[in-house]
UniProtKB/TrEMBL annotation:
Lineage of origin: Eukaryota, Metazoa, Chordata, Craniata, Vertebrata
Domain Serine/threonine-protein phosphatase 4 regulatory subunit 3-like central: 144-649
Summary of the function given for this chain in its UniProt record: Regulatory subunit of serine/threonine-protein phosphatase 4.
Comp. bias regions, Polar residues: 719-734
Bias kind Basic and acidic residues: ranges: 705-718
One GO BP annotation of this record: DNA damage response
Source species: Oncorhynchus kisutch (Coho salmon)
Gene3D superfamilies given in the database record: Leucine-rich Repeat Variant (1.25.10.10), Pleckstrin-homology domain (PH domain)/Phosphotyrosine-binding domain (PTB) (2.30.29.30)
Protein name in UniProt: Serine/threonine-protein phosphatase 4 regulatory subunit 3
Record-stated family: Belongs to the SMEK family.
Pfam families: EVH1_PP4R3, PP4R3
InterPro entries recorded: ARM-like (IPR011989), ARM-type_fold (IPR016024), EVH1_PP4R3 (IPR055236), P4R3-like_central_dom (IPR006887), PH-like_dom_sf (IPR011993), PP4R3-like (IPR051137)
Origin superkingdom: Eukaryota
Length: 805
């Protein structure tokens, strides 16, 4: 593999003018037959795959920036960059590019970018006409220089020529020396011209110029020039802020001078871009793209240098977690990590992964566990920001850490419980911190991001952990503020809206609303675990106490929780609601709300409308049986009448089904008897008419099912058995009433006898046995059954006449 000189990162510029990291590898220049020319090849250091294959075109403009960057455009809106680990490697490849194009390696750019509109004119004009001659760098010529800089901004060619002229013979440094002279003389006109010059030079968008302007010797003079905007009556005091107000704090002394200089430079350049320069217009956006890239690569370099300095980071962590560390020092350490993590957001995904893994290995999570439990509000706020970066980066990493904690610590100091307690104890009247922490908890318990291929059991293990160790901490404020016994007493005394148990404090109500939002999320996504918890703690009953709160938003949160439970259409939940009469507080709230047409009214109506539309039979029956008298007067919506209609339909359907069961049972008995008579007629050669009395059918569906089970048992008992001679033996058993005629005597000698308790008596080779020489014959179908069924549906008599013989 090539040495570190050739180690590079490949970047491409995306649509948002941000650099995307395409990977790290080793660059080489070689002839590629397919491309017919010398090309730049970058192969990934991880697997040797080809990251870049780019032919060095004679007409492509390559730029060398910051000694370790080579940037070029291969097509419209497709910019590429190679960031070298070492300057020597960058110089090597730059020489190769210049060799192919026949250029001097001393140049920072190999070609002059040509605007399409100017290309033709450029070919016709002599080369010297495009050279920009700068006036002598004198005080009296500042206006002329300012006009020249402003005039070239519209022409790409002239911008390039001006940039080359400014870089020659130290012209920029001479201009900045004139700034000091003008300021000493209080020459406002000259200072205004210098503002225009420096602003225009920044818009030339040249990295080589930035290297000069942002060096330690020049950057404060650049900031000084930008203070004198001609549009302002009084100059701004940016230098005073940077030197006196903004203080650079080294939480741990940084021994690397290059790193310190890079941090200072990046802060100041970022200040110039964000604070000093006006927001660029649509036409000026691309003018500062190189400035954005300059800051971006500086931040990447800072993070990389800090990350590689393990001694520095180890010392930071040691002091952060040391009990002897002073509070002011710990605050600075936490703020350092917060800034460090913020810088890391500029990194590309794979670099960010490596960054957070380094922090994890050094012990960032145990350290956060300590500092998040401290009394200092600033420390806790900064620690929360760091924790949010970690959760956003990898929820699985945080979950893995917290699941290992119970083996080595008490429940009270578990990281997630520390987060929950901080959420509960947020002193901000608007609960800004609590809202942020609730979002992080939601991310951690979301099953959608637990589907990692590396850990198939993560979802089951973590949810079991959460409900065992953390759920009681989360629901503690809810249970403490909803005492069901007091609620019942207050309702009995006639209290309707404001209940002593419900929190009147707005901040407490906000906190309970946040907790309810999280629990509602659990109902929707956790199914089994939350269902068990709700049943064991009778949680819904406690939550519905909040329907009496004077804070309508809290009552709506409680209602939304119940609505989500009913939305699961789970009969376990439905039975729990029915058994506890948990619609009562909801209906009381609806009635207390009266005729007011508001969100609370609409939300309650929607709950019942859902039950009606989804036809949740058990809940409909419960509501109509227990609450319809209170609801029937509500006629401005048809919801409750619709529920009543559903209830009646189901009742009719049950009645019809019961009658059909009765008819089917009677038909089966008659069919068996008729089949028996037909066989007897064949054997004896004479028809014997038998009559059957009317039967008393069971009064209820339950009694009918019992009778049906007895009959099915008897039918199995009386299944035909084969005799030793090869014939079949059938034993028919009827109920005691059916086996006797109207006069109470046996209807036929071949009917089965009945035992005293009404169950069939078994006999073997008795007059109740019929011997058949042929195979079993099916039951007879009667053609008039359909007519009889239609009549049965129209009228369902308790006693049915027997069929005529």
């Amino acid at each position: 593999m090539s040495d570190t000189r050739r180690r590079v990162k490949v970047y491409t510029l995306n649509e948002d003018r941000q650099w995307d990291d395409r990977g790290t590898g080793h660059v080489s220049s070689t002839f590629v037959e397919r491309l017919k020319g010398i090309s730049l090849l970058v192969r990934a250091e991880s697997d040797g795959s080809l990251l870049l294959e780019s032919k060095i075109s004679p007409n492509t403009a390559y730029q060398k920036q910051q000694d370790t960057l080579i940037v070029w455009s291969e097509a419209e809106n497709y910019d590429l960059a190679l960031s070298f680990q070492e300057k020597a490697g960058c110089d090597e490849i730059w020489e190769k590019i210049c060799q192919v194009q026949g250029k001097d390696p001393a140049l920072e750019i190999t070609q002059d970018p040509i605007d399409e509109s100017e290309e033709e004119r450029f070919e016709e004009m002599p080369e010297t006409s495009h050279l920009v001659e700068l006036p002598p760098c004198e005080l009296a010529r500042l206006e002329e220089i300012a006009d020249l800089v402003t005039s070239v901004l519209s022409s790409p060619i002239r911008r390039e020529k001006l940039a080359l002229a400014l870089m020659s013979e130290g012209y920029m440094k001479k201009l900045l020396q004139l700034f000091q002279v003008c300021e000493d003389l209080d020459n406002r006109e000259g200072l205004h011209h210098l503002y225009e010059i420096v602003r225009g030079v920044l818009f030339l968008n040249k990295a080589a110029l930035f290297e000069v302007m942002f060096s330690d010797d020049c950057i404060m003079d650049v900031v000084g020039c930008l203070e004198y905007d001609p549009a302002l009556v009084q100059p701004k005091r940016h230098r005073e802020f940077l030197t006196k107000t903004a203080k650079f704090k080294e939480v741990i002394p940084i021994t690397d001078s290059e790193l310190r200089q890079k941090i200072h430079q990046t802060y100041r350049v970022q200040y110039i871009q964000d604070i000093i320069l006006p927001t660029p217009s649509v036409f000026e956006e691309n003018f500062l793209s190189t400035l954005t890239s300059f800051i971006f690569f500086n931040k990447v370099e800072i993070v990389s240098m800090l990350q590689e300095d393990e001694k520095f980071l180890t010392e930071v962590f040691a002091q952060l977690t040391d009990e002897a560390t002073e509070d002011s020092k710990r605050r600075e350490l936490v703020n350092f990590f917060k800034e460090f993590c913020a810088f890391s957001q500029t990194l590309q995904p794979q670099n960010r992964d490596a960054f957070f893994k380094t922090l994890a290995n050094l012990g960032i999570l145990p350290a956060l566990e300590i500092v998040m439990g401290m009394d200092d509000l600033q420390v806790r706020a900064a620690a929360t920001d760091i924790f949010s970066y970690l959760v956003e980066f990898s929820p699985s990493m945080v979950r893995e850490f917290v699941m290992q904690e119970p083996q080595q610590t008490d429940d009270d100091v578990l990281l997630i419980n520390v987060v929950i307690k901080q959420m509960i104890c947020d002193s901000d009247p608007e609960l800004g911190g609590a809202v942020q922490l609730m979002g992080l908890l939601r991310t951690l318990i979301d099953p959608e991001n637990m589907l990692t291929p590396t850990n198939k059991t993560e979802k089951t293990e973590f949810l079991s952990f959460f409900y065992k160790y953390c759920m009681q901490v989360l629901t503690a404020p809810l249970l403490a503020n909803t005492v069901d016994e007091k609620k019942s007493k207050a309702l009995q005394e006639g209290s309707t809206k404001i209940n002593p148990v419900c929190p009147d404090n707005f901040q407490t109500a906000q906190l309970l609303a946040l907790i309810l939002e999280l629990l509602t999320f659990c109902v929707e996504h956790h199914t089994y675990h939350i269902k068990t918890y709700i049943m064991n703690k009778d949680l819904l009953r406690r939550i519905l106490v909040l329907m009496n709160s004077k804070h309508t938003f809290l009552a709506l949160c409680a209602l939304r929780f119940m609505r989500r439970i009913i939305g699961q259409k789970d009969e376990y939940y439905n039975r729990y609601i029915i058994k506890g009469n948990l619609f009562e507080p909801v209906i009381n709230t609806l009635l207390d709300n009266g005729t007011r047409y508001n969100l609370l009214n609409s939300a309650i109506i929607e709950l019942f409308e859902f039950i009606k539309v989804e036809d949740v039979k058990s809940l409909i029956a419960h509501i109509i049986d227990n609450y319809y008298k209170a609801l029937e007067s509500i006629e401005y919506v048809q919801t409750f009448k619709g529920l009543k209609g559903r209830y009646e339909q189901e009742k009719d359907r049950q009645t019809l089904r019961l009658n059909r069961y009765r008819r089917d049972a009677r038909t089966l008995d008659e069919d068996e008897e008729m089949w028996f008579h037909e066989d007897e007629d064949d054997d004896e050669g004479e028809a014997v008419e038998k009559s059957r009395p009317e039967e008393e059918f069971p009064e209820s569906y339950g009694k009918y099912m019992e009778a049906k089970k007895v009959k099915e048992s008897d039918d199995k008992e009386n299944f035909p058995t084969q005799t030793p001679t090869g014939s079949f033996k059938f034993t028919f058993s009827h109920s005691a009433g059916a086996a006797n005629g109207a006069n109470g005597k046996p209807a036929a000698s071949h009917a089965a006898s009945a035992s005293p308790n009404g169950s069939p008596a078994k006999s073997d080779a008795t007059p109740g046995t019929l011997v058949v020489k042929t195979a079993m014959v099916g039951l007879v179908d009667y053609p008039d059954d359909e007519d009889e069924e239609e009549e049965d549906e129209e009228q369902s008599p308790r006693k049915r006449p027997r069929l005529g013989s």
